[in-house]
Amino acid sequence: MRLPWGCVLMKLSVLMPIYNEKEFLEDIVKKVLRQQVVGIDEIELIMVDDCSCDGTIEVVKDLAQKYPQQIQAFYHEHNKGKGAALKTAIGKMTGDICIVQDADLEYDPADYPLVLEPIIQGRADCVYGSRFLGGRSKRVLFFWHSLGNKFLTLLSNMFTNLNLTDMETCYKAFRCDILKSLPIESSRFGFEPEVTSKIAKKKCRIYEVGISYQGRTYEEGKKITWKDGVQAIWTILKYH
Question: Is position 149 within any domain?
Answer without folding.
Answer: no
